[in-house]
């Protein structure tokens, strides 16, 4: 399929930390010529669209210092507009074809509707943060957002140099500088570039990939530091249906290539170094001297794959300049608008270059990768892959002794429902509060704000803590380096180092192993996929504890529902679960029900306490559970024709055939 999509996510954040110690990533003497391609918000007539604006060249040419003064006041235009159909904002944002997004007033309507949905005190004369992952079109979108923000009375915009700020860095900047909120322009882990009609691919509500649909992701974080609640996103949609005007400031495009302040009357735009605030926060959380001692060892190999995405702007300053890693340890470290024609998704399939290096006999001891906007991570040892579900559990198990931020111990632990139960066992052993929440980082944010949660994670390569209100890829990498550095701090040259595999095997010996895998069936007919889920819900309604599914005994089955312990809100129909008495689980979730069809996700988990069986390949270990369960209960058929479904396994290096699971277009059968 060749359709092109755009997605705009909304979220507002709150600030906490102070101070900054870092020189700008790009020197102020860098050329401003790149800014001449920025798009103007204003065009002929009363419409708003992204279009080249030659006025920027005169503005940048007039810049002679860190502060550029404009006129004493700015003119605000009220541009007539009409509602545009289809701007319904879901829990993770607005998704449309990019060609639709680029229509007259489409982006501008939605931004204005957002401001119309917020209390005046949330943005009037306030400071907001703006940044993104550096992909194609973000600079143009930045100019549109800045002008509408100024037109609505925002006092100041903090924007990353060249429009770059990772998702975790936006949170860090907001919390440190006490900004009222922020905008994140990102397509997370999906490809970018002009060949994809702005080069951004769509994802479903939990940011999992739909491989056919390029998109833009625009995220707006609310004051608590987490994704906007549905009450806000519902208001935005309501206002898109009645919008009649767009408030726009008549100011030139801002030069994003130079760190400094541009002022127009009472409105100002400060272009900031994208790294310094985030780096300072990491120095507060971790013992950099301890990590530096590990990375400077001649007998320890390290590699980080930035995948030509936003963490390329952070990798050298953090890992090389501050922690002493070798310059050649950073792979694909230059952020590119098209990610080097790659797919910036840190898994075994798309981070193949890193995986190939890590699986060599002489490969590094530790490797990691992060995604497009820097909030996801993958961790590898030499010839050893750590699943995201295991990774968050192992970080939690070692956090108190290895990471200064947790010296007093974590407040609590949490995971998304589909994530394996490994973290549950850590919480039980450490006697910590534990929470199982629906997929979506906002559910963690409420718990963090209430002081109930410190460390959390999702099986989709997202790990984080309460240092910010977003998942954080580089944080997870530094956490693992801290664990390894702590375990090896007394090792002398020539002594065998504690490896990633050693840490994992020790954890399994203590807590047991949760074999886990996820299968994605993509671009299924939405109608048939919905019928399948309804069929499963019918099975759940009729199921009874003690029923046998092959060799497995059912403990309970349900459609997961979550009541937030902080605000009492309820999230229902979050995934169909079959949980067995030995701790095994099979979970079905439906996501991405757009015009490209639905994605059916199946999560398979089996707990194994026997140490002698911990080295078994996960697919082999899970095969009996898959065979006993799926062959009995579910399939989708088309005109009586059945076939096995080809699924993309999230934790393997190639596509796999999931036996007995049949997904076809059409009517449900059994």
Key terms for this structure?
670 residues; alpha+beta
What does this structure look like?
The protein is of the alpha+beta class and 670 residues long. The chain is 28% helix and 26% strand. It is built from 17 helices and 38 strands. The strands form eleven sheets. The protein has an eight-stranded antiparallel β-sheet with strand order 28-29-32-33-34-27-36-37. A seven-stranded mixed β-sheet has the order 5-16-17-9-8-10-13, sandwiched between helices. Helix 3 (106-117) packs across helix 4 (138-151), helix 3 (106-117) crosses helix 6 and helix 11 packs parallel to helix 12. Residues 1-65, 197-219, 634-648 and 652-670 have low confidence and may be disordered. Keywords: Carbohydrate metabolism, Chloroplast, Glucose metabolism, Isomerase, Magnesium, Metal-binding, Phosphoprotein, Plastid, Transit peptide. InterPro entries: A-D-PHexomutase_a/b/a-I, A-D-PHexomutase_a/b/a-I/II/III, A-D-PHexomutase_a/b/a-II, A-D-PHexomutase_a/b/a-III, A-D-PHexomutase_C_sf, A-D-PHexomutase_CS, Alpha-D-phosphohexomutase_SF, PGM. Pfam families: PGM1_C_vert_fung, PGM_PMM_I, PGM_PMM_II, PGM_PMM_III. Its EC number is 5.4.2.2.
């Amino acid at each position: 399929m060749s359709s092109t999509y755009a997605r705009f996510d909304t979220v507002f954040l709150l600030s906490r930390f102070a101070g900054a110690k870092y020189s700008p990533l790009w020197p102020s003497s860098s050329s401003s010529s790149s800014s001449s391609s920025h798009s103007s918000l204003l065009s002929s007539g009363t419409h708003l669209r992204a279009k080249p604006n030659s006025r920027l060249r005169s503005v940048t040419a007039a810049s002679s210092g860190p502060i550029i003064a404009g006129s004493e006041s700015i003119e605000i235009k009220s541009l007539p507009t009409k509602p545009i159909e289809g701007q319904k904002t879901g829990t993770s944002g607005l998704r449309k074809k990019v060609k639709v997004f680029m229509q007259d007033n489409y982006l501008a309507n939605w931004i204005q509707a957002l401001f119309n949905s917020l209390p005046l005190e949330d943005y009037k004369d306030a400071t907001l943060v703006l940044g993104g992952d550096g992909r194609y079109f973000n600079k143009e979108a930045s100019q549109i957002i800045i002008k509408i923000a100024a037109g609505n009375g925002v006092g100041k915009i903090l924007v990353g140099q060249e429009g770059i700020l990772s998702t975790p860095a936006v949170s860090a900047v907001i919390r440190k500088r006490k900004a009222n909120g922020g905008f994140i322009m990102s397509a997370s882990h999906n490809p970018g570039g002009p060949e994809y009609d702005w080069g951004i691919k769509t994802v479903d509500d939990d940011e999992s990939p739909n491989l056919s649909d390029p998109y833009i992701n625009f995220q707006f974080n609310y004051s608590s530091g987490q994704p906007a609640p549905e009450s806000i996103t519902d208001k935005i949609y309501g206002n898109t249906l009645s919008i009649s005007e767009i408030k726009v400031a008549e100011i030139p495009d801002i030069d994003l290539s130079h760190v400094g302040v541009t002022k127009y009357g009472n409105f100002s735009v400060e272009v900031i170094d994208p790294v310094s605030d985030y780096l300072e926060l990491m120095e507060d959380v971790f013992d950099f001297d301890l990590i530096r001692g590990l990375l400077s060892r001649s007998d320890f190999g390290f590699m980080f794959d930035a995948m030509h995405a936003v963490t390329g702007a952070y990798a050298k300053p953090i890992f090389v300049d501050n922690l002493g890693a070798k310059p050649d340890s950073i792979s694909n470290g230059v952020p590119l608008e098209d990610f080097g024609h790659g797919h910036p998704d840190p898994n075994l399939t798309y981070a193949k270059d890193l995986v190939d290096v890590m699986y060599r006999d002489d490969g590094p001891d530790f490797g990691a990768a992060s995604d497009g906007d820097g909030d996801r991570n993958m961790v590898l040892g030499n010839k050893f892959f750590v699943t995201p579900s295991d990774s968050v559990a192992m970080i939690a198990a070692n956090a108190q002794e290895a990471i200064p931020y947790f010296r007093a111990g974590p407040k609590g632990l949490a995971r998304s429902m589909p994530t394996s139960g490994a973290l549950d066992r850590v919480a039980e052993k450490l006697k910590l509060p534990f929470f199982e929440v629906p997929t979506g980082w906002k559910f963690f944010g409420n718990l963090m704000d209430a002081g109930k949660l410190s460390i959390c994670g999702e099986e989709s390569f997202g790990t984080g803590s309460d240092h910010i209100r977003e998942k954080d890829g580089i944080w997870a990498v530094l956490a693992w380096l801290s664990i390894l550095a702590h375990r090896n701090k007394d090792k002398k040259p020539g002594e065998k180092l504690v490896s990633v595999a050693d840490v994992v095997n020790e954890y399994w010996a203590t807590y047991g192993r949760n074999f886990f895998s996820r299968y994605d069936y993509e671009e299924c007919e939405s109608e048939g996929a919905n019928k399948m889920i309804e069929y499963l819900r019918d099975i759940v309604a009729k199921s009874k504890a003690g029923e046998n599914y092959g060799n497995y005994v059912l403990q309970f089955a349900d459609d997961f529902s979550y009541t937030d312990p902080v605000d009492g809100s309820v999230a229902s129909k979050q995934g169909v679960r079959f949980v067995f008495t030995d701790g095994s689980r099979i979970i079905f979730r439906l996501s991405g029900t757009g015009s490209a069809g639905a994605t059916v996700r199946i999560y398979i988990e089996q707990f194994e306490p026997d140490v002698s069986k911990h080295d078994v390949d996960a697919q082999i270990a899970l095969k009996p559970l898959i065979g006993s369960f799926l062959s009995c209960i579910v399939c989708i058929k088309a005109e009586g024709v059945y076939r096995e479904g080809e699924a993309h396994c999230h934790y393997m290096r190639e596509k796999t055939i999931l036996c007995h699971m049949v997904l076809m277009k059409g009517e449900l059968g059994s």
